[in-house]
Please model this.
Amino acid sequence: MSRGHFDWNSALPPNDNDNNDPAVYPDEQGESRGKVTINDVARLARVSKKTVSRVINNSPLVRDDTRERVQAVIRQYGYAPDPQARALAFRRSFLVGMIYDNPSPQYVVNMQRGILDGLEGTGHLLVLQPCDRSDPNVYDPIEAFVRQQKPRGVILTPSISEDDRVAKILRDADCPYVRIASVPLDNGARMLRTRDHEGAKAAALHIAALGHRRIGHVHGPSTFRSAHERRRGFEEGLAEHGLTLDPALMREGAYTFESGAAGAASLLAMDDPPTALFMGNDEMAVGAYQAAREAGLSIPEDVSIVGYDDTPMASRVYPPMTTVRTAIREMGAEAARQLLGGDEYLAGPQSQSPQPELVIRGSTAQR
Amino acid sequence: MSRGHFDWNSALPPNDNDNNDPAVYPDEQGESRGKVTINDVARLARVSKKTVSRVINNSPLVRDDTRERVQAVIRQYGYAPDPQARALAFRRSFLVGMIYDNPSPQYVVNMQRGILDGLEGTGHLLVLQPCDRSDPNVYDPIEAFVRQQKPRGVILTPSISEDDRVAKILRDADCPYVRIASVPLDNGARMLRTRDHEGAKAAALHIAALGHRRIGHVHGPSTFRSAHERRRGFEEGLAEHGLTLDPALMREGAYTFESGAAGAASLLAMDDPPTALFMGNDEMAVGAYQAAREAGLSIPEDVSIVGYDDTPMASRVYPPMTTVRTAIREMGAEAARQLLGGDEYLAGPQSQSPQPELVIRGSTAQR
DNA sequence: CTGAAAGCGCTTACAG
DNA sequence: CTGAAAGCGCTTACAG
Model:
């Protein structure tokens, strides 16, 4: 069954004239005041409403000339099927939920845009479902949402995407979903893998190539898989230069400015401080800028700093920050397509985000 | 008619046991497999479905003991009415649209959270509808959305909120709305006024009190009413100290980092440059930081800088930025309540945002 | 205060 | 390839 892959936005009457053209909003025998239904289309095209329904849903079981006759009427009268009525009959709404707990506004907004890109022209709506994993009742609103709204599907971003209990709730409620995460947590059709490992490795290669040997790392919270993946990729990159990450030079942060500042301050206060810092994300890296400033150290002369994410802030701080760019918006679009594509993705390989890309700016220099 | 002011989320069965307790998802005589409908509730409470409907919709036309009997059944069986079915019958969905074109992620995310705060417990969903006023077809998706989805209402943020053609489209489609804007563009029930004028005035008072006399201003794009309101408020504040804003010391920006940098650079390159800059928003103010740095000027010793918005960046740049805090999230919540409250707001005075508040940090100093 | 009938605008299941 | 009937789960309009 194919459903809803028409661009029903474009089925709206063109809006290039201001007068209420009766051909646009017909008012035949005064009964359909401004609102064309499937019955009107059926009558005008001299077919049953079931045939109109088949045309709407791209069923192949319609003769070509019948289909064209129906489509002509649809176009002429600016007919668009009622999503609520369709949802009721389908037992499935045309909503796509985004479930997220990522604290970065930039990430959230980019992801939203990407999902909207992927949804465009499909007639689906994006519904926001933020959550907080530290709330013991995180699961209730999610379950209420999927059971009551019967969304077409949901997209989960880190770190809530890593929660298997949420996934189980969704499966039990028969709700399709795509999890965006840095490790394969689910079957291929339900996973979109980010490549944190590769991005962090690129950062390591860059730092090592600059001649740094004492290298510090403030990673994200251990409850985020991405924090682990970035550390692992970073270590792998260092290993290619025969280096290892000294545990004494690692700190755990919370992906926040404050935690980055604290972690970096602690490292820079050591007797033999690191000459380069790889911070788990840009937010923490800006915190490291502050810590360096307070320690009287210049960036990059005294200490090189690398972030992760390439948020707008990265290019606006001074000096502009070397960081790793991730294509968040593209990832959101891909997740949406994957969600709606469904079975097509079952056969293929696990889908992945675009390759993260190192952006070299002014916060890193030769040792 | 009161509708949908129940917290249907809490009507979901408590999830404290993992087994499929038949009292939670009843399967009486094998016909209602895991899905309780209004018919089940009616039968179990020995009333008509119409009476159940009255209870759901908080109609006063139900005897207390009848109501309690129905509510007991609803609770016991974890009944939650189907939003799609209600929407079809009501000819109005339980969606609330947010229509926005604000470029700042921080603003967008805060506003979303606020709207969600205001929607909580009402059974309404937040649907995203970003737009771009520079696109000649901005209006089409908006009209398609409100005509097809029949949302419960939409909330508009600056600058799209200032567009009267959008407002007309919404009225013509019979779609309730609230416009968030710095000037009264519509009737009271449809307006939530921001107090840009007051925030900017506070900034002016602060700068003038520090003894500055040559004061520059980079304002937002003239297509934003807020840009005008902020300038006006700023001038009013200066006037209280007997000062005026020299037109030669004004530049137009675009509320972006780059435009702020350019505007500030142009002012700081003057023969007799201003000793203080009031930037139209934080984003542009960070641009002014860059311009000052490139001109070899220290903040605040050589030039004081004031922003507007108090985004997280404001406290993370160096030196921490003096700026004006606006309660965006609270505003979103208020807009949502106003939208759902409807007529209650018709009588009262025009609703306003909380008072903007000057946050003095390290980017301003005595002349 | 309560209910039986009709309807919202679609799709499913069945028949041909 | 096409259609008449029944149904999705609610509310409206009317009656009592």
Summary: Residues 37-39, 49-50, 53, 56-57, 81-82, 84-91 of chain B lie near DNA strand D (CB under 10 Å from a C1').
